[in-house]
Give the backbone structure.
Amino acid sequence: MTELGLPQQPLQRALDRQNAAAFADSVQALRDEAKAALESPLQPVARNAGYYHDYFCPEHAAELVFDEHTPNAHACPIDDRVWSGQPFDDAWLWTANRRLAQRALRLALLWRVAGDPVHLAKAREILVGYAHIYPDVHSGRDAPSVGKITHHALDESVWVIPITWACHWVWPDLEPADRNLLQQDLLQTAALHIESQRVPRIHNYENWLNAALATIGTALGDNELVRRVTEDTFGVTDQLARGVLDDGHWYEGASSYHYFTLGAALALAMAREGQNDDLRGNPTLRQMFEAPLRIAFPDDYIPAINDCWYHSRVTDEVGHGIPTGPAFYEIASGWYPSPEFEAVLMRSYRSSVRNSVEALLYGPDTVSEAPSPERAESNENASGFAVLRPQLPLKFDGQLLLKYGPHGGGHGHADKLALSIYGGGDRWGTDLGTPGYGIAINDSWYRHTLSHSSIVIEGEAQPPATGEALRFRPVNHSPFGIADAQVVWEQGPYAAVYARRVVLARDGYFVVLTRIEAPVERKVHVVFHHAGTFAHWPDGSSSAADLPSNDSYSHLQEVSAWPSGSGATVQIETPVGDQTKTALIIATSPLPGSHLITARSPGNPASNLRATTIIEHTSQAFWTAAAFVYGDATQTRVEWEEPAQAGTVPNLSVRRGQHEESWSFTGTAHAPFNYPLGS
């Protein structure tokens, strides 16, 4: 075999573009990475790597700082404490292996573009180094899907794809003995191992195994292997058909897993470019590029719903082990030219350079300077994300996201009817996603219902459920925006409990109504988290809160309970931009027998504390409501009327300066904003 069978088009594009000014930074990045590889102490290690998610500080929930020179010392970025030993030392190998694979790819590509034999020699050294150890490395874990070089078969697949492309590009220049070694002891052995670890399911994990096998199969000319992972049940066609919902979001509901799955599909499409089964013609791929942009915040951060990385940003990193957001949209713009995708690139390159390998191999010839399309307000009905975009505060782009849809499988969070709040140029009160899965606070806080602006019953996490939308209307060109959804649970203290949440939004403020109906009396916490610090407390005297004694509630600090039977008001000093602050007034409606609990709670990282308010009420059925009004506190007044009858939402007036607006939820004629709460 004198050549491997992967497509030649990417290399040809790189050769055609190597001297073009638009790609000068991409070529220079290849040279910089090659230089780093030549100077690096990293080399293949004959040991099964540890779990990536263990590479996090147990105290701050922050990823440790990887230093390729210190495999036994790992610093926390928050307090510089150095962690060592297990599981950190083995988890360090995850990044080491990934870095070596990516460097092998770039060295091999640069060799073909620039012809420096030093780069060929280093790429060969990495590839042959892995081939010598690969057959004899085995995992000691008793698990359904394990890796050899890496922790599990998913990591093995992510690692072997760039390894295979590196082999492809250096193959014509290797000695026959090296080719035989790489073919038999690395590529064929890896394919046999990865195929033996496939699990029959629709999952992001299996997409990567399919992509790895299709890449190796294409390289080695194994058409039957390629057919199995593209056409058979649980192959890529089936994965996209059943795993991507009608609105284009991956079913697990976490944007970083959406991009993670998309990354696998793209890897497979790259391997099959120009073939009869070229995946680029599948319309679902384009939908997957589009969907996250509809729910992204105004600063391009992605809502960290479910097991999403909190740092995920369309114009920066969107996940680990996959291309950056700009690299994804280089591919999207190259394959499916559109103003929407090109706008992502334009925003990205305002603060960074266009230097990805994806730009060189797959991107458009130039990046358009066209203005970004207006961000949509949308109800992603299949996934259950309702997105409103009022100004919060006035003259600042804001966003409210109500989550009500499917649970999301193993990566779902227990947070039906959770509300995310963006305003003032920052994520004021959004989902926190997850840090590494290997630390205790991930389950006791980040995955628990209490860390979300949602509903907690009897102190326990919500069971999985799927809600439904009742009504949606955008803020723009409407008197007020509406996101109205409901859910019924089936397990534990939530059994047969009905909940409804209504978000009504105007520029500068919004109102949240929550309804609970239970078969028996339940203790309910209606939870809201927001960035900032408490500036003024409710009227009356505080007392100790009677909180559930579990690990989740133990994360709350500075806890106080205030009577709220006649309503309660707190003021939070909230950051706006880099230098200023604004007041947030949260005014809860009168609810006899209720308390308003105030506390500080972990953000992400955990050391970033948020202001938390909890409406606590024990009842079988009730409505409660809260108004969130931003601006000058001295010019703002928020008042709830006494409820006309039990079980209703009282009328509300919001005065800002000389302007007053009245809301009615019971049909009172004088209110300009009337929202029916009946069926």
Q: What stands out?
A: The chain is about 30% helix and 20% strand. The mean pLDDT is 95.
